[in-house]
Amino acid sequence: MKIPYGESNFKKIITQGFLYIDKTKYIETLEQRGSYNILLRPRRFGKTLFLSTLRHYYDILCRDDFEAFFGHLNIGHNPTPLKNSYRILSFDFSGIETGSQKSIRQGFSSKVEYSLRQFLVRYGYNRENVLSIEADNGAAAMMNRFFTLIGETSVYLLIDEYDHFANALLGEDLELFITIVGKGGFVRAFYEVIKTATMEGIIDRLFITGVTSITLDSMTSGFNIGDNITFHRDFNQVTGFTAQETGEMIQPFVDACGLNKQEVMNTLGRWYNGYRFSSRADKKIFNPDMVLYFLRHFDTGECRWPEQMLDDNIASDYGKIMRLFGIGDRESNFAALEELLVNGEIIGLHKGKLDLDIHKPFERDDFISLLLYMGFITISGTVLSQLRYVIPNYVIEKLYYGYFGTEIERRAQIRVEKHTLENAVAELALHNNINPLLKEIRKVLTLFSNRDFMRMDEKHIKTLILTLLYQSEVYFIRSEAEVNNRYPDILLLERQPIEVRYQFLFELKFSKKKDGEKGMEKKRAEGVKQIRGYQELDDIKRLPKLQSYLLLTDGTEIEAVAVA
User: Where residue 71 sits, what CATH number does that domain have?
Assistant: First the structure.
């Protein structure tokens, strides 16, 4: 099986024998939906491949290849009337340098010039027409010149990563973002020309992909024709993999290595599954890049799991996009993140429009809606007119705790040494020695007890401990995981291919200093009793090499009580 990790060219995947998950049934759904559609999904979620699929399906020059490309796929058995009936104009706005307004303008114009010239060459226009497209004239002027050249030609316009450069800019310079995207800006001018072309019938259909709606929302008056299908139930699974699709992909690995398929699916589900893009959708979606990363790095020769379950490319991409956390009131955003980590969920009103204005506050619900677009939270249900959001999976949770650790270091003006924590976790994993970890926890608690930006109660202290534990790659960490209808505070579980000598169950109890020794003893008794109850659960009994500790703290000091 050839794994198409990093591949997004439909033709290459189909003709060179790569694994392809058939999403072509959505072509008909999309065609019936309307002419101008916008689909927003988190980074590396299969948008570019779907766009490439559309290109090859609708391009008049691919007419003779239709059977080879689509004959074995869903849409090949049920083609639509519009197949192979357009000339395709496509733009990709990723990779634009955002160092200055000049570099952004030049990068944007160069992307436009390249695509327009490619179109003219591909569809047989003469050399003079090709050379008449010059970047020096600016994107809007080039578009006007282009539409004059092609006349009444029927065009399907595809725009990929429409907001890539804008998202990068948002985290650095909000005023510059508004300057280039807002009224009078060259980006808005570009889209105003496109809007005019749709009104004149030159652009018959349009499909745009990106991550967030901020750029489109900020230039609404210049471009308000698109139908945002991002959170529509019918398109919940248009990108990404369902559980069934993922199960079919791992079957060869399961067979080759004699693995327990359900256990593999459970593990992949915890790491990569959990996305839901409509409150009315009944299925969750796996991140496709993450699943393909796992398949590519699984060693079938030794039946060995990847050393890292988190793709460095994903971590890098999400690290960059986390700059958007600084939009608006940083304190309010931090409070929302803290609430999400401490409570495991957050409730808010979904904002359909995220229009940025330096004179208008970017409020809590705006920030929560932005997190939804970026894939940092996902929909888990409704509460009257509001939505309930949760962290979709372990990958995003791990990224959150990494960011949260960096943020609290900045706020408390402390530095947590990752190698020291890694050594402390190693002592725990290899020798059941909890003292080095307690030392690191105690150090942070002492510093935090004199700060006022974070409460010191049981839930918040647990969040601090988890933040420290997530700095290590050794364990798969589960916080308040459901175990036979009970919820232990923290489980540190062995994860392949790392072998540890001990797994752990931690129960945390917090006693206020004012309650004195009597309060501490009461909490000690409660904690020990809870742990003994957990130890009787079937799923806990099945965990090999398990050690149980009660972590008892007053917010400054912490001790560990082993419960055999």
Answer: 3.40.50
